[in-house]
Amino acid sequence: MIQKYTKRPVTIEAIQWDGHNTDEITTFCGPCCIVKNTYLIIQTLEGNHMAHIGNYIIKGIKGEFYPCKPDIFEKTYMKVQ
Questions:
Q1: What is the mean pLDDT of residues 11-36?
Q2: CA-CA distances (angstroms) from residue 71 to 1, 22, 38, 56, 62?
Q3: Cα dist. 62→21, 23, 58, 69, 81 in Å?
């Protein structure tokens, strides 16, 4: 039977890569972030994912990191006051 589910509210940490804050990104992610010229490689639990300028880097609930496109991020998360 098909059922409906709602995501549990979870507070995460994230930072948006603007192309100039690479040092801040690598401090946040540690060794799971590999810096290339115009993109980042984020080593996730599901393998390597590319992050482009404008993407958010999210720290998940298990301490894992992954990139998220800004339009998806803004539809999914609200800034905590």
A1: 96
A2: 32, 21, 20, 10, 23
A3: 24, 23, 11, 20, 23
CB atoms within 10 A of CB 42: 23
Q: Is the pLDDT of residue 9 over 90?
A: no
Q: Where are the alpha helices (DSSP H) in 1-81?
A: 22-29, 70-76
* Global confidence as pTM: 0.89
Beta strands in the chain (DSSP E): 13-16, 33-35, 39-44, 47-52, 56-59, 65-68
Residue (of 24, 22, 74) closest to 53 by Cα position = 22
pLDDT bin (cut points 50, 70, 90) of residue 81 is confident
